[in-house]
Amino acid sequence: MPDELELKLTSTFTFDIESNISLIREILGHSVDLVQRDFIFHQEKQIRGVLFYTDGLIDKEEINKALKTLINCSDEILSSCIGDRMGDELTKNIKTYLLNNVSVNQSNKVQDAIDGILSGDTAIIIDRTEQVIILSSRGADARSIEEPQTEQVVRGPRDGFTENIRTNTALVRRRIRDPQFRVESMKIGKKSKTDVNIAYLKGTVKEGLVEEVKKRLARIEIDAVIDSGYIEELIEDAPFSPFTTVQSTERPDKVASYIFEGRVAIFVDNSPFVLTAPAYFWQFLQASDDYYSRYMSGTFFRLMRYIAFIISLTLPSLYVLLISFHQEMIPTPLALTIASGREVIPFPVLLEALIMEISFELMREAGLRMPKPVGQAVSIVGSLVIGQAAVQAGVVSPFMVIIVALTGIASFAIPNYGASFSIRLIRFPLLIASGTLGLLGFASMFTIIAIHALSLRSFGESYLAPATPFKPSDQKDFLIRMPWWRMDTNAQLAEGEQYRLGEHQVPSPPPKGVDKEGDKGQKPPEKKKSDNENNPPSSKQSLVKIRRKKRKWGKKDET
Amino acid sequence: MKHKGIVFLLFTLSLLLTGCAGKRELNELAIVMAVGIDKGEEGNVRVTAQIPRPSDARGQTGAPSGQTGDAIWSVSAEGKTLFEAIRNLGRFSPRRIFWAHNFIIVINEEFAKTGIQDVIDFFTRNPELRMNTWVAVTPDKAVEVVTTITGLEVIPGEAVDKLLRYSAITSQAPRTTMRNLYSSYLSEGSDPVLTRVRLVEKGVSNEDPGKMNVKQVELAGAGVFKKDKLIGILEGDEVRGLIPFIERLESVILSVSCPNDKSENVSLELRHQNFKIIPGYEDGKPTFHVKLVTYSSIAEADCPISLKDKKQVDEMEKELEELLYNDIKKIVDKVKKDYHADILRLGEEFNNKYPSEWKQLKADWKERLQDAKIDIVVDAKIKNSVLLYNPTKSN
After folding, report:
1. Which of B15, B62, B101 sits opposite A398 (nearest CB)?
2. Are B178 and B185 in contact (CB under 8 A)?
3. Would the keyword Metal-binding turn up in this protein's UniProt record (chain A) (predicted)?
4. Among the four residues A163, A330, A374, B196, which has the most C-beta atoms within 10 Å?
5. Inter-chain touch B63–A397, beta carbons under 8 Å
């Protein structure tokens, strides 16, 4: 049976309209959403025509307009066509006449027509020609652009990706009006035939990266791609690692900035999550807010997130190892306080920590899956049971509640959901190692994880860059976020132009006196400039010097 | 990949094999806060450990326990050696005795007279014990000092710890830790001194405010050791001359008489000091030049004085200098004549400057010290009258 279908799909159309119709019907069957509209193309010459489209995927207006043009202009279209077999000539004419509507293609392959129908195009079959006209009439209903649910910002754009791939690419395109910005298309999924687009900035993208991405995408053989998560798992570098080496985001501004940094974005139809590669580990800790708010607050909040990362990774393990192995490391008054809280606890601290961690994860998961009104009930019950009742019943110590709560809050401060999840996963081996072997276990497990993370590559880039390998010019946007007027070089990943800023970008008020005159408009600007040159403020001069020096230092080696 | 998986699995499972070896949780420990060492019967050592009961020592709100009994629980045991006595504590203690948080070791003077080498050895050899534990001697029974609940702190050990920590303002006792004791015991050029504490009935009773019958731990001078044996006691006021030699003289209050009215007093607070010992070597004899420069401020004046008046200030400075000179002189004389123990650490100073000469002298250093020339210079300066620049007087 599949062979038969295959055979039909690879065949070509004939000049006989009846057999063409039955061919399509045989392939697509009698689905209710497959619409067949018969029409008379030319009354006198008795030429029939048939439209095929899938209901719900098309824009009816578009089809009606095309149909009207087709019938009204049938004389003109047919004027140059003679004989029973009009073939190419006819379709070529139709194409030119329909062009004032939408994009039109022609093909005599059954496969093309079927693919078109199934993805929202309209197939127009005219009698006495073997060419089928494929009219682009896509217009499925889609969710409108909304604020991203998973990555919210206080300051910054509020638009998020939708399920429509074209909307998504447009959202990015609106931010990159560069002629070099390219979007290339692929289809993945034998049955789903999902559109996958690869977007990059030619000339800026890392050399060979696009080819590598295409190679990895082309390798995929799968029946269906429902979400970009499928693609992510099929192209990532470290499939056995808890770390994610491909970033997914809902924010078009993030994707645009990654593309400017020389990365590649992968759009997948029907998924509001766009993948970008290569990914560094640290970028999962960076939020778009860092860049949109002023650099001081941006840096501060970024540092807070690094602290949150350390807390969410190590805090429960450190607590467990201190309580069960290294009591001498706790300050005495604190040791007494902790001991008094643990006096009635029947479980060893490791078990207590595991119970609390797991119940916290349960609560989070339950709150997430439940409908919103029920979710609230879950969180109320959860916080009461875990926070209050468990302590009063003497099952967990109040200190453990604090530790788990702190860890939970810290893990929510990590802006990328996937990354926060992978950090939460690593926490468990660390916890068990430190609960069984103390500081020794913690240190060795941490070392193992560190070695593993160091060995990772994401599309040829070291995962822990720019920390190791150390990239001096990328430090501007790593632990701290330098002010924009200092971020003069492009990311090291990016090819092409080295500087992203012009010189003298540090804003400063005009020198005293000149400002007043300038306001009155009495002196022409040239005069003002010459004034400046004659008496340059010393601070400005030194600033220029510093900048020049810096440029020399930060020069990229040309390869 | 399959191979890797097996290795990983084996590694993870091997963690379970440890069975949490060496694990002992915080609430399974008896955390010792203070130790007392007394002479026991028949030449035994008696060790008393003061252990807080966490739930009573800390008002625990969540857990259904606490506030039912005493904050501390003290156990006492004897043994032929210190370690045996400590092991014997285990007979009473349901929890493992844990030493790392110990605040203070109190040694009875009778015991100290027979030598404390075993104490020094045990408390420095054991990795669980900290070197910054306070060490003190007491004329009373160490058991009593350790178990007496003093007013403010719930745990007596903590009370004594804080007493010593913030004792700088009284300068009634040197503050000695295990580290000080150990280093001065090991060093050839010095002998140990230890803080001395005693129990006095100085606390005012809550029931009967007229009486002062509540026992309190008080700082009471220093115990002087020769090698590991207690040989003498310095009372509180004598310690003032000793303190500059071993730590810093800080924030001491001294009172001198008023320049214009000898019956009234002026209290001076020593704010800052500059203390130097310059060793010398003349004709095979060590000499020491001790120089103390202090800067003080007026803390309280019973008579109108102003720092503007140079004559008045000079007079007060002179009296203060004399006072400090006598303090130091007294202690130096005592060391030279009575103790024959170098608690001033002069040997170390000498060693630092004349290492090769030291090698010849160190064998009979204690005798050499007796006829060493030690001259003392005190320079006191009154610099500051704090907030009141002009004297307070009526009209």
Report:
1. B62
2. no
3. no
4. B196
5. yes
Instruction: Count each helix (H run) and each strand (E run) in chain A, helices first.
Output: 21, 12
Q: Name every chain A residue with its beta carbon within 8 A of the beta carbon of B100.
A: 327-328
**B297: Cβ–Cβ under 8 A, 6 or more apart, which residues?**
B268, B269, B271, B382, B383, B384, B385, B386
Q: For A347, which residue in chain B has the nearest alpha carbon?
A: B25
Report angle CA B179, B182, B186 to the nearest 5 degrees: 140
Any idea what DSSP says for residue B115? -
Query: Shortest Cα distance from A520 to chain B (angstroms)?
Result: 55
pLDDT tier for residue B3 given thresholds of 50, 70 and 90: confident
Token readout for B28 is 């399974």
Which residues, other chains included, contact B108 with Cβ-Cβ below 8 Å and sequence gap of 6+? B36, B37, B38, B39, B137, B138, B140, B141, B142
Cα–Cα distance measured from residue A550 to residue A492, given in angstroms and rounded to the nearest whole number? 16
Chain-centre distance for alpha carbon A91: 41
pLDDT tens across B277-298, in order?
A: 899 888 878 889 999 998 888 8
- Type and span of the H or E element at B34: strand B34-39
Q: Do A339 and B64 touch (CB under 8 A)?
A: no
The pairing of strands B373-384 and B285-301 is parallel
pLDDT of residue A534: 47
For residue B369, which of B395, B385, B348, B392 has the smallest C-alpha distance?
B348
B20 closest CB neighbour out of A328, A345, A436? A436
Distance to chain B for A229, nearest Cα, Å = 23
Residue A20 near residue A125, CB atoms below 8 Å: yes
Residues of chain B with CATH 3.30.300.210: 246-395
Residue B189 host element (H or E): none
Q: How far apart are CA A429 and CA B52, in angstroms?
A: 35
Mean pLDDT, 10 residues at a time, chain A of 559 residues: 78 85 88 89 82 89 83 74 64 74 80 88 85 84 88 90 93 93 93 92 91 94 94 92 92 94 94 93 90 93 93 94 90 88 87 90 84 80 80 87 92 87 89 90 93 92 89 88 89 85 87 60 45 46 49 46
Cα distances (Å, whole numbers) of residue A92 to A77, A78, A80, A85: 9, 11, 11, 14
Q: Which residues of A touch B101 (CB under 8 A)?
A: 327-328, 332, 335
Rounded to an integer, what distance in angstroms lies between the CA atom of residue A496 and that of residue A201?
11
Q: Where are the domains of chain A?
A: 2-135, 165-279, 308-458, 472-553
Task: Classify domain B246-395 at the CATH topology level.
Answer: GMP Synthetase; Chain A, domain 3 (3.30.300)
Give me the total of CB pairs closer than 8 Å, taking one residue from chain A and one from chain B: 103
